[in-house]
Amino acid sequence: MRTSLLSLPDELLDLVVDQALGEYAPRLYKERQDTCRALSLVNKRVGAIAQPKLVEVVHAVVYTPLGFRAQLKPEQVPRRNCVRTLWLDGVGLNGSVNGFLSFAAVRDLRLTVFREVRLEDFGLLPEIRTLVLAQGHFSSNKPLVAPKLERLVLYQCSHSRPPRQNEGFTAAGCPSLRHLYLDVSHDGRPWPCSQDLLDQVDTLGSPLTDALRVRRSSHSALIVSGSVALDKVLFDLDFMDGVPDQPASRVRHLRVHADSDTWPSDWARLADNLVHRFPSLKALYLPLAVDASRVMLGRPVLEAVRKLVANCERARVVVVYEHALSADGPAEDRAAPHFEARSRRVKAERAAAAARRRRARRRAARGLCADGGIVRQDDARAGRAS
């Protein structure tokens, strides 16, 4: 008997449709929506599953400063309570600064080119898990309270707060936060993240230029010290900033971002300087587009990448092909699945080792107490005998 996807129950067919749509990323938004529309026309049953997903992910434009007509405005979005992922351009440039609050069910919120947004307003979204703020300005009067927030990205932003407010992001306000990416702020000051929040997260992200800036001045997006803390930081190298002239000894994990315009000479320069510029490097993350086992590369790029990989092997640096080209765009969430999985594993191993040490200390303490009791009993018998 021949079977087909249509023989699956609705729950499994829903998973198949999700798999066909693929992951959400701003660079893939149009492709995802086109696929969703095509699936909606397959038949009535598949269409009933695919059509609601058209409004689960929305990219809307609040205001276009150059005068271009916005294709979709937030007030035109149907069934806002069904939207799970929302990407808004131009919030606060002309009109409301908190229009996103009407999307109460949103789990993934990304604001780009925005102004005068209040940090505490994000805490009014009860289901928010991912928050990306890029190329804008926000203010705060108190720390963010978002109990379910798991990922936070601050990219090319500025933040104003009262002088008495030292912290805008704390472990108490964001107890579920596991992934934090901090670009250098416009004023150059470190972001107001509490130390317990930095200790809590599994991964930290920052541009490579920030790692170099720490040496030259006190301006930094991210202040961390110690090998344990640095081991969970993934630094981003953009070829536009160039390979550093001086050794970056703080860098243990490095992700290289490239695009279709990256020159072969950039790859060759990185290959020539990798060992000397990054003496503490453990892992190098490269775009999937330069994986020669999957993609046919031009001869100059192929030779440069092969040399880079060979130098990594000699230096015992792990090479991982993971992210797409232009994955460092303003609205991207900077996710690094391999690095995040590694960080979770290392964190669990350290917690298990600490638990073993505590148990050993307790056993040793009980042993001492037992030995002390035996000695006291022997002393008492000797006293009665005398």
From TrEMBL:
This is F-box domain-containing protein. It comes from Rhodotorula graminis (strain WP1).
